[in-house]
Amino acid sequence: MNILITGASSQLAQAIATELKDDHSVRLMDSAPVNVAEGCDFIQGNTLDPDDSWEAVRGIDVLIHTGEPPTDLPSDELKREQVLLDLATRGTHVLFTAAVEAGIKKFIYASTLSIFNAYTDDVYITELWKPLPSPEIVEMTKYLGELTAREFAREHLVTVTGLRLGELVLEEAVPGEAPNLAWLDIRDAAGAFRCVLNRDSSSSAWWTQRWAIYHICADIPNPKFLIDQARGIGYQPAHDFQSLYLKPSAPSG
Q1: What is the DSSP string of 104-158?
Q2: In the chain, what are the domain boundaries?
Q3: pLDDT of residue 88
Q4: What is the pLDDT of residue 253?
């Protein structure tokens, strides 16, 4: 497959490209120059620009929109937040519109599990739970991007898959603290995108079959986020942070 990955400067995009480049033709996109992995192509462009988006999606079979911010954001906080909101909504719409016009049938959007931060850790959250995003810019922009992506499955005969990712880390590099219930090794995150490549219901007349959302995080004891639905598409995380869970507690006194 020919795959376009946006947000090329991000660790997530780089990890996805590394995961897929040996089996697929990978093109990465960002608004500023980025060094990409050997064997991958790069195209510089802004998703807010229809011409840039059209150039990026030409000849592509699968669009992976990471929703990750570019490196050339304004330094002013208010302007930066305005750009991020614009990228999440109008930028996603411009990019997906160009992709639909180019005949792309498979879309994948990287959302976040942080939209459930308002819930306590003593509950089991599935994809049926209602997100409660805060006004915090990362949560809000990811959620607005997810809603924009979902509408394309409603309006067009395309398959759109949302992956709500946990907090991206490397298992061997996490700090020596109590494990975070949302931790997700970035290599497992990249593997989840590979799993979605085989999901295809773009010909279905029912938009609810063309749209799917999955929770992606580590498989840990007493989880907050259940990943049973993701297992159904082949997601099997290899990093479970067990060394931290099994670490003996410090003696009292």
Answers
A1: --EEEEEEEGGGGTTS-TTS-B-TTSPP---SSHHHHHHHHHHHHHHHHHHHSS-
A2: 2-245
A3: 96
A4: 45
